[in-house]
Amino acid sequence: MTVGLAADKRLFRLGTGIPDYAWAIGATDDLGLLVEAVAAWRQGVSFDALRARFEFLDLDELTGALDNGEPARTQWSHLLSSDFYRPQWNLLRRLHSDEALRGFFPVLSHSAVRLRADPLDAVSRQVKVAEADAGRYEVLRVGAPEAAWVEVPAADLVACVRAFLAER
């Protein structure tokens, strides 16, 4: 969790997230209330109880998915339904079509999809995939010694990504 201050007024912004991926979940001018909310969160108070007790919290679907242990499914759903990510839908659908890859947490940035084995561990096994041109993709095993982008045809993409994610 993170707490940020507003520059122009007394306002404390609360955020949460996973390594390399964060989002705002509420703001209040009452620092004591914010501290209570953080303490309750850290004590394991349920998502629904937090929402009921702390009205300033805006706990969205992804925050709830972190709470119930299913962030990958929720993130896939968000990416595949948001018009903002429409240019990458073909790539996302190709990766999501594979049952094994659906279990990895996807993050889309700069037109590339990063699949992370553990959404809460920034150095867990990861693969980055970008569309090179129609029918060809570039794949990178993130964090691998001497990692380099590998270009693969669409027909080999899922097998390549699965192989890279299987490496330890």
Keywords:
5-stranded antiparallel beta sheet, alpha+beta, elongated, 3-stranded antiparallel beta sheet, 168 residues, 6 helices, 33% helix
Give a brief rundown of this model.
With 168 residues, the chain is of the alpha+beta class. The chain has helices spanning 31-42, 47-53, 61-68, 71-81, 89-96, 157-166; strands at 2-5, 12-18, 21-28, 105-109, 112-116, 126-133, 136-142, 150-153. α3 runs antiparallel to α4.
Total count of strands: 8
Class inferred from helices and paired strands: alpha+beta
CA gyration radius, whole angstroms: 19 Å
Q: What is the element string, with H for helices and E for strands?
A: EEEHHHHHEEEEEH
Gap from first CA to last CA? 29 Å
* Estimated share of beta-strand residues: 25-35%
Residue runs with pLDDT of under 50 for 5 or more positions: none
Strand sequence of the main sheet, in spatial order?
Answer: 4-5-6-7-8
The main pleated sheet reads as: 5 strands, antiparallel
Helix content: 25-40%
What is the strand and helix layout of this fold?
Blueprint: E1 2-5, E2 12-18, E3 21-28, H1 31-42, H2 47-53, H3 61-68, H4 71-81, H5 89-96, E4 105-109, E5 112-116, E6 126-133, E7 136-142, E8 150-153, H6 157-166
Antiparallel strand pairs: 1-2, 2-3, 4-5, 5-6, 6-7, 7-8
Task: Describe it.
It contains 6 helices and 8 strands, in the order βββαααααβββββα. It is an alpha+beta fold. The chain has a 5-stranded antiparallel sheet with strand order 4-5-6-7-8. The longest helix has 12 residues, at 31-42. The relative contact order is 0.10. The model has no long low-confidence stretch (mean pLDDT 85).
